[in-house]
Every structure is written in C-alpha cells, then in structure tokens.
Amino acid sequence: MRALLLLLLRSGRGGRAVAPAATFLQRGAGAGAGPRRAMALYRTEERGQPYSQNYRLFFKNVADHYISPFHDIPLKVNSREENAISTKKARNEEYENLFNMIVEVPRWTNAKMEIATEEPLNPIKQYVKDDKLRYVANIFPYKGYIWNYGALPQTWEDPNQKDKSTDCCGDNDPIDVCEIGSKVFSCGEVIRVKILGILALIDEGETDWKLIAINVNDPEASKFHDIDDVKKFKPGYLEATLNWFRLYKVPEGKPENQFAFNGEFKNKAFALEVIKSTHECWKALLMKNCNRGTINCTNVQICGSPFHCTQEEARSLVESVLSSLNKESNEEEQVWHFLGK
Ligand SMILES: *[C@@H]1O[C@H](CO)[C@@H](O)[C@H](O)[C@H]1NC(C)=O
C-alpha cells in the first residue's frame, strides 16, 4: 500500500498558453551548406476558449489553407508535401533521422492537449473524458509533462495489428514523442527533431510507443546521436521518464503502467524501425486498406487518398465544426501526488 498525500494548491491559471506556430525551414540545413533562410511553413488558428471543451487549434499551411496536422504535415522533413505518401530516398544519414514533430503539450504544463483524431482536419483539443477536461497530475517532484510532448505526423499505431515486439495492439493514435531539448515550445508548434531512442509503454494492454527526441536546433543537439548520449549528457532524465510513465495514471485510480523489454529504452535504430512501421500503417489507413475505426482521414494534400478534400470543403468543415460546439470552461485544480518510490 502506498501512502498518498495530497497537497492542494490554488490554481492561478492565467493567460493563453498558445502562441502562433512557426516551423522554420532553414534552406540547406540538414543537407549541410546553404544560406540559413527561414520560412514559416505552418501556422495555427485558435478557436474557442483555452481550457474549455469548445477549444480547437486548427492548422494552416504557408498558402493559408487549412490542413490536417495528422495527415498533411509530412513525417520526414525533406519529403515534399504534395506527394508525401510516396517514399523518397534521403540524401544522407543525418537527413534520414530528421522528422517533423507536432507539439501538443508544452513542458511543465498539465492540460492533456492532443490531436483530435476523430474530427475532420484533426485540430488540437483538450482531451475530455466523462464530460470533464483532462489534466495530468503533478507527481512529486514533477510538474506536468517533463518534456515537450507531441506526435509524429503521418504515423498510426494500428489497434487491429499486434506489434511483433510487444505482442500488444496499437493505441489508435499517431506515435508519441518526448522532446528533451532546453526550449519550452507552444502547443501547435511544428518542430524538427532528431530521434534518439524509444520506450515501449504498455498502457492498459495497448502498445503506446514513446519516442525520445531532441529539437534539431537545440544548442546542444550536435552532441546527441543515440540513446546513450541522453544518459551521458542528461543524467537522470530517462529514469525520470520511466518513472513518470509508470505512475501517471495512478492518481486516476488506475494501476501502474507496464513496459515491454523490462522498461529498457531501445536505441535510435530500433526507434526508426518502429516509426517506419507506424508510417506504413498510416498509409494503409489513408488509402482505405484497413479498418479505420473512428479515425477521420479527411486531408487536403494526399493525392490519391479517397479522403482527399478541396480547400473550400476544408474551410466549410472548419466553420461547421465550430458552430456545433458550445460548452463552458472548467478551471484546473492543482493537486500534487506524493507516490514515493
Ligand atoms: C470525417 O469527417 C467528414 C466531415 O464530417 C465526414 O464526411 C467523413 O465521413 C469522416 N470520416 C472519414 C473516414 O474521413
């Protein structure tokens, strides 16, 4: 029996946590030389009140057209958006390891913001369960999420397919990422990350992979090549990560989470294989080659996908989604849980 102490704090939640998303493409970056010309590739458009059930964060591309962050942002940094579904050979090893990451939850925050996989154009919204907005608990000494947390676009953990290494099916979401760099990003930012390793969380019997990655523009990024560099340069971070995932559902009355491989973090090569297979599952999803369940596949850039829609249709979808939502906002209650060792 573990002792559970609760310390109630007054929540002083003020201000919006959301800033315009900006992904900057440095021309020639990753490939080596070239001028560092920055160009914003994506931006976000906020609708509704943050921390309310009607809040939605929609994504737009550089042409100011609505897109789905789940389906229309390319997985790989160097693939062209227009034909993201066709695989392209990367130019070198470094490029092979560069991925777009959609930041859903900024580090140190608690609101469970996530890509709404079941809604058309998949805006980010706050997770709602039993008609209540969801926040992760503070498990002492952690405050909220301990990394910038998000997902890789164009990936899907298929709930109908058993993973060979974990013997469990997928959790029906894009693959999750923990970004360990020094900067705190905003919800909806699209950043470029280097993959370093992966943890196989088993969450209520489902495989829920957690990638470990670092922002490629982090001042220390050049020191990080694989999972062992995290142990070397950020001692304690992987242990804290394991502990965090083990305990994060305990405050909701759920059991501790389990891990495949005895909680061992797998290396970059292993992680890249997992990404590849979740990308294949996503392709099958978008091309109608599998059971989609409740996932909404509406996209504007995947030519050949039966769920492709025009820009006008996308715009009217955004408008109809918004008019159908109207709920009031909830305040977050700040609680700390002391779960010990
Ligand atoms: C997604 O949402 C649109 C608009 O509500 C709907 O027409 C479509 O059938 C949904 N399903 C899929 C699989 O895209």
Key phrases:
single chain, alpha+beta, Inorganic Pyrophosphatase, 17 strands, 17% helix, disordered N terminus
Ordered list of secondary-structure elements with their pairings:
Blueprint lengths: L4 E5 L32 E6 L8 E6 L4 E2 L1 H4 L20 H4 L1 E8 L7 E3 L8 E3 L1 E2 L2 E2 L4 E2 L8 E4 L24 E4 L10 E14 L2 E10 L11 H7 L3 H11 L10 E2 L6 E2 H19 L24 H13 L10 E5 L3
Parallel strand pairs: 10-17, 12-14
Antiparallel strand pairs: 1-17, 2-3, 3-4, 5-11, 5-13, 6-7, 8-9, 11-12, 13-14, 13-15, 13-16
This protein binds 2-acetamido-2-deoxy-beta-D-glucopyranose (NAG).
2-acetamido-2-deoxy-beta-D-glucopyranose binds next to loops.
Q: How many individual helices?
A: 6
Helicity range = 10-25%
The CATH architecture designation is Alpha-Beta Complex
Radius of gyration: 19 Å
Q: Work out the count of structural domains.
A: 1
Oligomer: single chain
